[in-house]
Fold:
Amino acid sequence: MTTDANMLSRPLGVPDLLDRLEACHGPQQPSWPVDPYEFLVWWHCGYPTSDAACARGWDGLRRNFGVDAEKILSAPPAKLTAALKGSGMFPEVRAAYLKEIAQRVQSEFGGDLRAALVAMGGNARKALKTFHSIADPGADRILLFARISPIAAVPSNCTQVLARIRNGADPDTYNASYRDAQQAIEAEVPRQFHARTRAYLLLKEHGQTICKRTNPKCVECPVRDACAYFARHQNPQPNIASV
Ligand code: SF4
Structure:
């Protein structure tokens, strides 16, 4: 940890940090389907991917066809594309991915992706990563919210929150950022579904609304007194000339 972090008057552990984030943002609930198959469908419903875009595409899909694998497989490609047009770019490509997901879940996972992942145990993460655009963060998120494994998942677009608070800077690489945040949660948040989903959701909310990737709103932040990044940027050390 950096010198700035050591200078903080009130260093916070992750559990205390989460309590303060919850006092600011309130209790959080997932805004996406937590079933693994439905999550994969939802994830491809919007592009560029965002909660709002995916929710729009998901609503369009449900209104027009439903989200069951059979419904998606029987939908005419042009109509499936049309249902996704209001939720971002490349609707025809996303429609093709939806058909691929539905086909694979039927043929490779016995029509019940969640049950198949449970049966796979430690290989479930690897299996999820064979789906398009699912990497470690997506696989961890699916396994946690589907209550398959209480893995220390970190919101993929909010890994900066813990890095800034604890170390005072954004890590050099995304992988390092994700790994460091995951290790902090693993070490300090109980290995329970409720505790780990709560951590995920609070870090996500804080990273999207206040501790944004660019231009974090530090003056509005409820944990700024415990943040090494804030200490470093708001309390620069005086430049005393040597004699
Ligand atoms: S003080 Fe700034 S950098 Fe630190 S957690 Fe809050 S918003 Fe993020």
